[in-house]
Amino acid sequence: MKREIITTGDGSKTIQIKDWDEQYHSKHGAVQEAYHVFIANGLDLFSDEKISLLEIGFGTGLNAIITLIESEKRSLEVHYHGVEAYPVILDEVKELDYLSTLNAAHLQNEFNKMHSSAWQEEIAVNAKFSLFKDKKDFKDIQDKNSFNLIYFDAFGARVQPELWTEAIFQKMFNALQNGGYLVTYAAKGSVRRAMLAVGFLVERLPGPPGKREMLRARRPIS
Fold first, then answer.
1. 99, 65 in Cβ contact below 8 A?
2. Which superfamily is assigned to 29-218 in CATH?
3. Over the stretch 44-102, which tens digit does the pLDDT of each residue have?
4. Are 96 and 5 in contact (CB under 8 A)?
5. Distance (Å, whole) CA 220 – CA 222
6. Which residue positions in the chain have pLDDT lower than 50?
7. 212: helix, coil or strand?
8. Residue 178 CB neighbours (<10 A)
9. If DSSP codes are grouped into helix, strand and coil, which group holds residue 75?
10. Three-state DSSP state, 82
């Protein structure tokens, strides 16, 4: 499928898949969306502790590098597990130029490690941030009680409805520890119902620029 780099509403870039009319991030602002959905409504729930984090859709690495930046501010030790079936190529990563957008040129070495490291191998990005890149389909996830937080950043239900089903959210529920959270930019009623059906407690929250709402789900403490 044809892919191109586009500039989003906040000046940051993303990848657009022309055949689907779908982007890796919001056209209203890639960085704004990542901060609002995954940091303000996800990572900010944790402070001064060690967390294990699963990202569904490692993609461009934007969420990972922002999490590194923000975890350092919060004194968090992060074990980051990114699942991706179709890795982004390095030429695209360079053209996206996220470190310039984020004023984080000092993290060039760490960002390079994230993208050049081998799949299926845990690496230390720095002293308090480890990364395991897992190349597989989301349907093949079998983790149990492993994560405190999930960034659910799959392509939208319009183009990949099979990623937003009860079967997938059951895997997410199983992968979380009791009391763990899942955050996503999505807000469709069908997505919320699928989450509720597998046992999540679900809340609607104000969405990022360009979206009225988003969802946050929690695995109950049993």
1. yes
2. Vaccinia Virus protein VP39 (3.40.50.150)
3. 999 878 999 999 999 999 999 999 999 999 999 999 999 999 999 999 999 999 999 99
4. yes
5. 6
6. none
7. coil
8. 10
9. coil
10. strand
